[in-house]
Amino acid sequence: MEPVAVGLIGAGPWAEMAHAPMLAKGPHTRLAGVWARRPEAAARLGAPVFERVEELFDACEAVAFSVPPAVQAELGVLAARAGKALLLEKPLADSLENARRLADAVAETGVPTQMVLTMRYTPQTRTFLARCGEIEPFGGHAANISGVLTGGHAFGTPWRLERGALLDVGPHVVDLLDAALGRVTGVRAHGDPLRWTGLLLEHESGAVSEASLCMAAVGDLPPSTFAVYGRTGNAVLQPWEDDPFDIIAEEFAATVRAGGGHPLDAAHGLRLQQVLAEAERQLATP
Fold first, then answer.
1. 22, 119, 136, 174: which has the fewest C-beta neighbours closer than 10 Å?
2. In what order do the strands lie in the sheet with 137-145?
3. Superfamily of domain 4-118+243-263
4. pLDDT at site 114
5. pLDDT value at position 262?
6. Is the separation of the CB atoms in 202 and 184 below 8 Å?
7. Which residues of the chain have pLDDT under 70?
8. pLDDT at position 145, please?
9. pTM, rounded to two decimals
10. What span, in angstroms and rounded, lies between the C-alpha atoms of 167 and 273?
11. Fold classified for 123-241
């Protein structure tokens, strides 16, 4: 299969660490070029740098995003309307309104999409989810604790410092509990996204789950934990052994060539955003 020519929007730490190497490595994709608001940063990624995003669109058949959620929402619409397949970061957008606008543009144009929900591509996660399907699950819990907001962290970017754990790690946690226990149909939230947030999730299967999110912890911190309990056993997510980026690139190329059909598409990203928006609304209500 001819490698998919992918243009990258963004040149920050995550683009340099993950997206650019993944796309340039091949054999399923090739990095066709980069557009960023800081051309000097884009030049470090080892690909042609375009001054205008429309010129990047002309040079590729798909676009990957490594930018703040508000920028992805804005430029994702332009890329979809230009007929480009989209490799999208989480969350889909900075607001539910903008997430709907992007998802609507994708639906109208029919372009293939895939979300970079990194945890879902690891062999350990797929083994965990297969086990969840065997045990008739009725409940579970998750915790994702870090120190990203405490200062000096590479990912302590403005949007994370403003919105906190719910918008950043919330998509990962809600997505995985959704996959393990069934579609999330309700959420109750308490706490503070800049300190500690608790979520109680209700699933269409009748299961319930709890999640703790924090990006303001200090000291030695435990790895993320996910556990699910069922009528015939339990399932615990094991630590990652390998990074998921080869799998992400391979599946994205297959999604582009097939014209869509990936389960982690923009419509799925919108559904996650609906849960997170409701949680944010509850946390903002006195």
1. 136
2. 184-191, 197-203, 208-214, 137-145, 225-230, 233-236
3. NAD(P)-binding Rossmann-like Domain (3.40.50.720)
4. 98
5. 98
6. yes
7. none
8. 97
9. 0.96
10. 9
11. Dihydrodipicolinate Reductase; domain 2 (3.30.360)
